[in-house]
Amino acid sequence: MSLRSRLSIAVAAGALAVTALATPAVAGDDPDDPGSDWGQNQTQNQTQNQNQGQNQNHNTRLARGVVTASSLALRSAPNRGGQIIRWADRGEVVSIFCKTNGQSIQGNRQWYLLTDGTWAWGSARYIRTIGTAPRWC
After folding, report:
1. How far apart are CA 73 and CA 76, in angstroms?
2. Cβ of 75: how many Cβ atoms within 10 Å?
3. Residue 97 phi/psi, 5° resolution?
4. Triad 98, 99, 100: Cα angle to 5°
5. pLDDT tens across 51-110, in order?
6. Backbone phi, psi, residue 108, to 5°
7. Contact call for residues 87 and 106 (beta carbons, < 8 A)
8. Which CATH class is domain 63-130?
9. What's the CA gap between 31 and 129, in Å, rounded?
10. Residue from 121, 124, 125 nearest 113 by CA
11. 77: Cβ–Cβ under 8 A, 6 or more apart, which residues?
């Protein structure tokens, strides 16, 4: 199975998971049910989320990087055959979600999955990380 197919499947699975989480799954979770404690649970969940809000940035662990190439093609897959999604210019600061091995670019097989507006892959050969190293995908 190609990497592009696996990426498409992963995106679809993520969308399905988000949809499943947003749908009431059991009795008592229905906001229109007068006997439900849904409102109370929602308030508790919101309070917990607000308390954890300060730690959410640390949990996602987005790394940062700076583009070193004069112009870098950001692609749909971690290889030169992936469709170009957009271009990044030298000096642009990017958010890195994770890293993986892909096609070798001048001896460097690592590619970064970037989260700036669109999800796209950029060769690590042309992105210098700032601070925390990206986690593996």
Report:
1. 10
2. 21
3. -80, -50
4. 135
5. 444 444 444 689 999 999 999 999 999 999 999 999 999 999 999 999 999 999 999 999
6. -110, 115
7. no
8. mainly beta
9. 45
10. 121
11. 3, 4, 7, 83, 102, 121
